[in-house]
Input
Amino acid sequence: MDQIPKWFPGARLNYAENVLQRMSESQRAAAIYSVGEGRAVTSLTYMQLYDKVRLCASAMRKAGLVSGDRVAGYIPNVAEAVVAFLAAASIGAIWSSTSTDFGVTAVLDRFAQIAPKLLFSADATCYNGKIHSHIDKLAAVAKELPSASRVIVIPYDENHLGSTSTIPNACSWDEFLALADSTAELEFAQLPFDHPLVILFSSGTTGKPKCLVHSAGGLLLQHRKEHQISQDLGPDDVLFYYTTTGWMMWNWLVGALSVGSAIVLYEGSPFKPEAGVMWNLVDSLGITAFGTSAKYIQTLEDVDYRPKEHHSLATLKAIYSTASPLKPNSFDFVYEHIKADVCLSSVTGGTDICSLFCGANTSLPVYRGEVQARGLGMAVECWDGEGNAVLGQSGDLVCVKPFPCMPVYFWGDEGGKRYHAAYFDHYPHVWYHGDFMIIDEATGGVHMLGRSDGTLNPAGVRFGSAELYNIVDTYPEIADSLVVGQQHGVDERVLMFLQMADGHRFDAAIVKRIVAHIRSHLSPRHVPALILPVAGGIPYTINGKKVEIAVKKLVSDLYR
Output
């Protein structure tokens, strides 16, 4: 398994061709609904989506894009993002995206590694009822990406057009599409099964984020399996998932187009202008499957918002939850206060596989507090730390046989050393995922217990402590630091411990400066929940590594 076997050698396919196949069957069927704070619902049929992809792909070719080039999106969750992704895929270029709430440093830590030829973005976004200009951050990113020959700026709306004069090589979305040959056919490059489709980013505890290269064939096969077989989605369904373009669930959402479903793209706060904003969409758009996070469901309960008292939800047949384990009380809330006859599926997987290890199965019962089942074709077992498969007791989530959606490689990882270290160092020849779990002996369902390694995962946004260390290390007042995650109810929160340098005192001012620095250079999601002083030194292993995992377990046990 750790040799990363090739699947279906000799086969040829194109991801975009498969995703857009419904155009030939039902041209007027809805493909995408796009909506967000301050934006009315717009829609694209499969025919309209096909035509926009055709024009965008032609413009990309005119801009010199070829198979294997990278196309990046520093972009909100809008229809243009899907169009650009599929256009790149039709050529064989590789897509990679981050959300607009990422700071300049966080974006460059990712995109500078892959040197994109084209960069798609927006001039503004809206969140919590406020419009935020994106121009300054985009200009700062573009200036540090000399590989980007064009920066394509999507207007937030016609009333909030921002000047792009400070952005190198900038043009508007319409100006870019004007490059296209209006009569050009949409050509689908026929490529090997393992041809790269997307690059996702997953941070470890040292160095810059790892660049995970996922294959077109692997994701197409995996997503179709999950959507079509496990979740029973098809042409009559409308799938909504609350996600950003920087989360793997965005790719998973787009994958539902391959089974003919319509997808809903939402950009903005899930609670503005009011708590029912996303449930209104269920009724107005006929959403049949609604995806969100465990934290969102918990927040609905905290603010005592009961969707079934305000909405019909007649079309809704499934609710998916991920990012952190869905606690048993949240199962009760869903069935009592949202809808009694939905299939509620807590699902788990990750950026590493851009899909699921365990998740929904509409043929099985739902048990309170459990993920329904291990995924089809995924040889998932629970190991006790000694390499023994166990049932009914906690252990590590491992996968003991190869699966098609394993990353094909890590970008820039000559010899595959980082890839091997990420998944195969813990148990030889077996994929170690870093999650703690229990497989129920009676039901076969799965209880997810959180992360078993040192990667930080607040609200499902996964990143490495090194990103925070890189910020703190610039402060001469701080001698050393340690960052760990702490299980905190259904979620995980980040704790930062500071060892002050001699002659310096820990106070509210240093905390405020660090928080502002992290928020502006990384993102609001990177900001620790607590920043605390330590009287002694930061613990290290004999090999010189900070002792994160032991501290994480200690503080999580204290919370429990």
Q: What stands out?
A: The mean pLDDT is 92. DSSP finds 15 helices and 29 strands in the chain. Residues 46-62 form the longest helix (17 residues).
